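Dear Dr. L.,

I hope this message finds you well. Following up on our conversation about the binding site, I have prepared a predicted three-dimensional model of the protein together with guanosine-5'-diphosphate-alpha-D-mannose. For your records, I am including the exact sequence and ligand specification that went into the calculation, followed by the structure tokens. Please feel free to forward this to your student if that is useful.
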Amino acid sequence: MNNYSFTVIIPTYNEIANIENIIKAVLSVLNKSEIDGEILVVDDNSKDGTIDAVKNLQKSYSNLNLIVRLEDHGLSQSVVEGFFKAQSDIIQVIDADFSHPVNLIPQFYYAIEDEKYDVCIGSRYTKGGDIQNWPLKRRVISLGATGLGRVLFPDVTDPVSGFFAIKRDVVKNSELKPRGYKILMEVLGKGKWESFKEIPFTFKDREVGESKLKISTMTDYISQCINIGLFAFTHHDTKVWKEWMKILKFGIVGLSGIFVNTAVLFAFTEWAHLYYLISSFFAIEASIITNFILNDFWTFKGGSNNKFSRKWKRFLSYQVISICGTLINMGVLFIFTDLVGLWYIAANIIGILVAFIWNFFVNRNVTWRATK
Ligand code: GDD
Ligand code: MN
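The resulting structure of the complex is given below.
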């Protein structure tokens, strides 16, 4: 059913204080930008008059639609039901409480319609994004949730945002298991998408009404993350699986580097009689070179650009990042050898592991940034 070019889903539960204003604000934005869109309010059987308020407005606006849900109460479930009842190919989700600036909506629409992105995400954590009126406790919880989400989707700065738009095809035939609050995570974890764009925005906490965030929201979220992680093992066309393959390959390369490193460290210390920290420097440099070659050809597939100058640039970047990794490696080696009293070969392996974590994340986002 494609009666419109755009659908704005507004999930609601007891939003009498906001519903009329938010509907009018969205309609006015759609009008001004001449987008032929509908609003789809998905309500979980509110008892505060929200439903009647929408029904009342429906008399004046033919493109205002309402679903009242009587079963399976929940924000994510409501949004997913909205996905399947939307009468357009491009779907936006926003909160009813004006936390998400409605005037940005056209940017989401055009990102998908004109720029052909699969997903467009309003981000509080990208450059230009912000949060207003949040108590410290909520900021900390949100940062924790975002951090956990970014383990699964490292490129997405705000994978738990409730302000986003998608092509309907992203979720068509996908096995969404909606629960909790973080429907975007579910879409990213199980939907079919390649490209995404982020739009920075300032999250304003509701001025009217109450937030419905509960403790169970957090535990639901953690099991949702685990579920998405496991889902990737049986669905290799997901983003999560592709990311994990990279970490695995980087790990295998790192393992090969440990052998190079240990062999050089041993040879230089035992046979060339160098001080172990001096040997370690050569050992690390040798493994940097072999690791770079393997990662460039295999883990990150050399990227799209195999020009010699580009390759050289990537190597320089890898080298600089690895120097920091080296310092980390040597620091740990020193601490465990001289201060803890561990055998230097064992201490060195601990140092390599710590440096590995640093190396993966920074190289992924800097050296092979273009190939992500
Ligand atoms: N249908 C339905 N069912 N809607 C619900 C339910 C529910 O059980 N619970 C909340 N909503 C609606 C609210 O009416 C509001 O429009 C929107 O979902 C967000 O609810 P809030 O209670 O205002 O959420 P919040 O401010 O704590 O959370 C926001 O931040 C999260 C990221 O930190 C929301 O934007 C979330 O979408 C977002 O994930
Ligand atoms: Mn809110």
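In brief: The mean pLDDT is 92.

With kind regards,
A. P.
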